[in-house]
Amino acid sequence: MKAIEAAKIVLVVAKQFSIDDVPEAYREQSKGPVGKLSIRLDW
Description:
This protein is mainly α. It is built from three helices and no strands. It has one domain. Helix 1 (2-16) crosses helix 3 (35-42) and helix 2 packs antiparallel against helix 3.
């Protein structure tokens, strides 16, 4: 369940970036344990 909560936080943070910053944010997140999960949930 912690992974789900972390993914929700990631989504909120990602929405605060501009469009140009989103790919960079996802590259950084993909290094973490919830990176792939958050990408699936968001897009």
